[in-house]
Amino acid sequence: MTSDDVNDCLFCKIVAGDLPADVVDTSDRVVAFRDIDPKAPVHVLVVPKEHHGDVSVLAAADPQLLAEVVEVADRVAHDLADGQYRFIFNSGPRAGQSVFHVHGHVIAGTQLGWTPA
Ligand code: AMP
């Protein structure tokens, strides 16, 4: 990521409050907001406030922050659903990643199928 990419990052703008989002949970270093195009009754994106490109970059740079992302995801799933959920990180365009600021998708609130490809 170049600094220009970070300056143009959609999720950095949401974290900064420069773009609106339906925030459902937050901690010192993590924010969770509803996906604008939900694929399930509960579809929440869990995002570290600090910019990292994808989950492997985050894991290498700050494993404690990744653990905090998981902690917030689990709390969201318990608060908004029954605590059973899928937590998805798309990594790379061919895997469906379209926003290059790491985010996990909490998918919950219904019986989930399994057709990822
Ligand atoms: P991914 O395709 O894994 O990178 O996920 C990006 C997700 O961000 C998609 O599910 C989009 O629907 C979602 N998204 C894009 N723009 C916004 C926004 N402004 N607020 C909330 N979710 C968004």
What distinguishing features does this structure have?
HIT family, subunit A, alpha+beta, 32% helix, 5-stranded antiparallel β-sheet, single chain, globular, binds adenosine monophosphate
Descriptive account of the structure:
The chain is of the alpha+beta class and about 120 residues long. It has a domain at about 5-80: HIT-like (HIT family, subunit A, 2-Layer Sandwich), CATH 3.30.428. Helices cover about 30% and strands about 20% of the residues. The protein has a 5-stranded antiparallel β-sheet, covered by helices on one side. A hairpin with a 3-residue loop joins strand 1 (about 25) and strand 2. Helix 3 (about 55-60) crosses helix 4 (about 65-80). The longest helix is centred in the middle third of the chain and has 18 residues, at about 65-80. The termini are far apart. The structure holds adenosine monophosphate. Adenosine monophosphate (AMP) binds next to loops. The site of adenosine monophosphate (AMP) has 12 residues, from loops.
Brief rundown of the structure:
Helices cover 32% and strands 21% of the residues.
